[in-house]
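Hi F.,

I've been meaning to write this up properly since the lab meeting, where we talked about keeping a consistent format for the predictions we share between groups. The idea is simple: the sequence comes first, exactly as it goes in, then the structure tokens exactly as they come out, then a line or two of notes. No screenshots and no reformatting. I'm using this chain as the first example so we have something concrete to point to.
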Amino acid sequence: MPKSQTKQTLPAKDSAIKNTSLATSVGLTSQIPTVSEKINTHTMVPEKIPQSFHLPKNSYEIQGNTLLLRTFDNISEAELEKSLNILIRDNNIKTLRLDSSISHEAHRQIANIIMRNHPLFEMMRLIHGNDVVNITFGGIKDLNDLLGQKFVDDFVGGAVRREIISRFDTYSESMMKQGQKTHNRLVRNDYKNLTPSFEGGTFSPGILFGPENSKKSFIDSVLKSNDIMIREVAQEKGLTVDVVRQTIHEKLDFGVGIAKVTDATPIGKMQAFYEAEIISRKGLKKPGIEIISYDIKKIEACAQRVVQIEKEVLDKFSGKNFTFRGVEYPVTLPSGHGGYIINPDLLGYVRKYSAEFPPESKVLVQNISDYISYANQGFDFIAPIRKWSDDIPRVEKMERDFQKGIIYVQNIQETFKGVLTKEALTSNVEGKKGMLVFLDVRGMGIDNIQSFVRLARKVESGKYDKADLMTGGDSVTNKFITFTNNLKTKNISLGGDEAYLFFEGIGPEGAPTIIADIHKALAESGLKGRIAHGFETTDVAQTFKTLDSSTKVHKMFEEMIDALAQGKNIDADILPRTIHIKSPNDIPEEIFVKGLKGSEVIALQIQGFIKNIARGINPIQEKFLYHSEGRNFMTEITYQGDLLNIHFIPQ
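Output, unedited:
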């Protein structure tokens, strides 16, 4: 029975978007067996319904370890997922069954939850001749920096996607009303991509974006219908409404790619999925909406440019240095195999801070920018799969069960990576005693770029096949699998370059051992990360949010140590032992590291950051420790009311 809970922080809005693809459940509802007569127990009604529980009282019934779902409406997918996780947790549910009374819309929402966690679920339902259309979004990072991640989640992840999906739904309904057979469905909806599929030969850009074939016109239509949201963020950021609109027009971008399913085997369907995603990036940074078809020659051209630029940089800049934030670094490093590679730090600095390089580095920075761009355009594809021989049979069984109205709990609570969804983790550990750990994986983007470059070299050599093209992200994926397998907990959730962990029964006295175990698992997997931990589980979502935010303080100190000490470790003795900050406006002089040029700039960055987050973190009176591999110090941060203590501990 659901337990009373404190209010949880909602996830990003894009997780609440309703998937309006018609064929997700067309033809399936009638196959769901009538099972309500088999359930003899009364409907379980919680005595105290938590604020995050949204299912109506008459929409579900419980018998033993089985949850029967009847129809429901006016509930978002995010609310539905929260409610299901609460019922699963509090009643030890193992299986969900869909009653024959369940509506088409409710059926579709459940399918969407499975699709988000297991992208192969919808991908494998593609048929020969389908056109797979991928919409990839660009400019998200810039918008996050300028207008805040919450707004971007609400606007891009919410409003923009809802508009596209609504138009897709309208078009699909009109086809069905005209008596046309349609296999239109929404195959994927994640933070980077939106992927509908169409009956072969029926797609045109006007269906989703309007007859003007203009990004500006489409974005204008979304801005107009979400005027309140725009005005709220303008007021919050101290900007005019016109400036917010202009910022969105300048930064928000999307490209559209199309590929046809010519081979109905599992790998053939994945190939179409890959082709549509990769080629959609060619549509970025263009004013019009150009539908680009996949062409292997375009991928080979990207590979040739990657190899060519790499050779030019190594030939021209080997033995030379570049300057970043007043510090010199080598452009190239020994590869360990008798040659040289481009310095990964250079890739990272150009990727994130290209505008901060001095004018004399203009040519180098442009070369590296192009190098990264071509590698991403041609090979940035993270296949949603761990092992073909295991994942395909698993998803095929999942599909057969779903057609019978049967869903096993792991398909709701786990992702294809074999870990919990963040919502399931949050729900499962709420109120339990133990240690929460937030892990920010460092350098994952650079690891991926280096993997894409290796694949580009293989393609440029001509010694590759189609299956190789879908392996660009395998290296990092395998590192994460190794990492999670080596951890001493199954309470794990992964999101991008972040990991969320819970170790039940562990208190402060056991924290050092757990941290050492995490460091060992990171080392064994080839990953590096920043670790923050705490023990407040009353509101797990808020604690993870706090841990996430506060790691940025430690990251700034890392950058200070790295950049100001010319990229080398320095003796932690030169750092102040303790910094006491009584208010966001009180940054003491001892924050400046003596003898290190530029430390005042870093101090100001830290001051600005603390001003922005202090109100959000002060209420949690908690101690957080931050550890980083390759450095001889760790940072301990303690929040006590309005007092923030930063303590450097030599290692």
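Notes:
Confidence is low (pLDDT under 50) at residues 1-49, 564-605, 607-633.
The domain at 422-445+476-650 is CATH 3.30.70 (Alpha-Beta Plaits).

If this format works for you, I'll send the rest the same way.

G.
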